[in-house]
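Question thread 4412

I'm putting together a teaching handout and wanted feedback from people who do this every day. The idea is simple: show students a protein as raw sequence, then show them the structure tokens that encode its fold, then repeat with a second protein so they can compare. Below is the first pair exactly as I plan to print it.
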Amino acid sequence: MTKNYDLVIVGGGTGGYIAAIRASQLGLKTAIVEKDKLGGTCLHQGCIPSKTLLKSAEIYQQLLEASTYGIRVHDVSIDFLKVQERKQLIIDQLYQGVIGLMKKGKIDIYEGVGRILGPSIFSPNAGTISVEMNDGTENEMLISKNVVIATGSKVKTLKNLEIDGDTILSSNEALNLEALPDSMLIVGAGVIGIEWASMLTDFGVQVTLIEASKQVLPSEDRAIAKEMQRLLKKKGVTIYTDVQLQVDTIKKDNKVSVQLKQKDQLVTVQADKLLLAIGREAAVDNMGLENTAIQLDGDGFIKVNQHYQTKESHIYAIGDCIGGMQLAHVASHEGKHAIEHIADLDPAPLNYQNIPSCVYSKPEVAHVGYTEQEAKDLGYQIEKGTVRFGAIGKALINGTSDGFVKIISDKKTKDLLGVHIIGGNATELISEAGLAQMLDAVPWEIGETIHPHPSLSEALAEAALDINKMKIHG
């Protein structure tokens, strides 16, 4: 069966469904093709389930530490099946919300695998989408004036280290564990690895964290990474950095053993299970890109221009499949931008230096703008201000006095270059910094903004004032 649309979106994750809503608002007849469930990785296998488990781990730790607040709690234990049940209830509620949004926007949903066709009897241009329907019915042919590819990403794997779903896991399998293991090896100390290390440790699992780079959280400011490593070690995590994983020495016999090459020495580590968390790669296989002029970069991501157009100007690509920051909120804004460009609204290109990036571990990490090293590499002469949360009354009240705020500015122009936070509620505090960055604020303006007392946000003001040696506390 053949149907005509103004826009077909291949992929119904966060970027895809938000792009569809924006298209509907602008009066475009829109369809989404999704092979699994709307909401994509973020809702079903990423952001939402992982943060739900992190919250349960946080509550468990708070109860264990309740005596420090003068509260007596006895016989605290984990019902992990209940933890998983709560996770699924939240996913289901949000999923129904997405379905409702699609109905409200009169957006057609095709449940199946979409493939891009080249020029054919359906259209002189590449871009007709053939949908192999999940229910086994006849393929649908969707002829569209414009296409948005929003197929997201998939777990990156290592050669000779196969994910079996039992002993060797990706985050997908780990999210569905029915019971907590006694010990876990985590290969990769980026965002995913750090969040899992934090969560599992708070649940009482013995964690060993393995990272090939010289620091955990390789994309974060060095001072932030150093603090995270210190605090994770304080919680009992064993950490190996700057090591090579000898994957050919993996052995599975109820446990998994791994040899690490650290300088000229071999170290063997062992645990009940191994979680592979080395990042994600574009999910663009077998979708018909070869039928188009669309190009991939050296890492397999789709090449796009500043408006997310591919080499086929009527075919756009957004989100994880184009690389970049690989964050749900980034994908959603890329999607809205692409739709507004399709609708000739002339949207301004996204400034990625204004977009916050977050790690939902304990402690949390968040940043916007350049790291100190990035700013120096770009030739800036920098000034910086810091304040530790231990100097902030609300942090002491909350029991989250670890960590700090660090602000970087241009010594010559006084422009804000970057804000970095590690500590309680960092992922909420960063939005003020994001707004300041977008408005081209200087640190003095953040410092002179009156922040409520007591509040964690006072740390932002103090760090900003510290650039001019004016901070009051700390």
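The second pair follows. I'd like the answer to focus on this one:
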Amino acid sequence: MKSLFWILIILPVVLQAQTMDEKLYGYRHFQFLYKGDTVNMLVKSKEGEERKRKPVLLFCQGSLPVPLMILYNEGGRKEVGNVFVFNSDLLTEKYHLAIIGKPGIPLQADRQVLSDNFTFKDSTGYFPRFYTAHNLLDYYVERNKEVIRFLRQQSWVSEEGLVIAGHSEGSTIAAKVAVETKAVSALIYSGGNPMGRIMTIIERNRALEKDSTDLTTGDMNYWQEVVNDPGGMDASNGDTHKATYQFSIPPLQYLEKLKIPVLVSYGSKDAVAPFDEYLRVEMIRQKKQNFSFLVYPGTEHNYFPVKADGTIDYDIFNWDKVAGDWKNWLLQLKKSK
């Protein structure tokens, strides 16, 4: 958290890089122009091994416009919170870790200017229009494919293969990129719903229902509106119809096409758990040997334990355990080759 990072500026399309040798927070910073979007990418490497040839693990963010770097004022000095949700040291021994920012969202922001859930809003109090206009599955997939092409041209990137991982919304992005990019050698699908976003919305509301309360009628009506206008770009009530429609296409159709190793991880108390367990049952039925599953009993969407009364125990942080299990799975893949 107290280390520094190198900034590199990458010109659009031709992807030529210029090194500025400025260091901040232990990350190398790459910046592109892609379809009018200033794309920020951070790369975390083991200290002193930034130029050592290693494979890349590209991590796809979850939903919402959260800056990659959140700055905290500690004793008059600014420090950056974890860019990755887990301790990156768990994976940098074998990989360069890469993560790409959200469209129209600054690379870094002070904590005090962000909402309670760390999201960035503009002066009107809403998510920036540029973000909502580009917050689409197809946009993220095409953008990430271009970034992967750039990464594969770098001298410090090994040709051993490229791992793509994603959590929540990022899992859907990662799954579709894996289907469309031959360079991807393994997929980590975390906290995703193989039946799509609308099913997660419905399942979460089902869990809140009482005997006489049906909370999903509104969800079904909303879904009908989305299907009636799948290209709608009005974001006044949250996600655009186009975003909901694209992310609700069941990622199962991407996953079942994959022949590369796939690791599915999820908490058993997450709304997506029944659908990930359906995926596991279905992969067994199809006799697909390239899928592995890790379930974390009693934990929710971000792997925090759920107490007996249904509240979440935020004092127990399991993300490092999860990332450690990912590391062990990746090591086993290398040994099996």
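Top answer:
Good format. For the second protein you could add a caption like this: Confidence is low (pLDDT under 50) at residues 1-22. The first strand starts at residue 4 and ends at 10.
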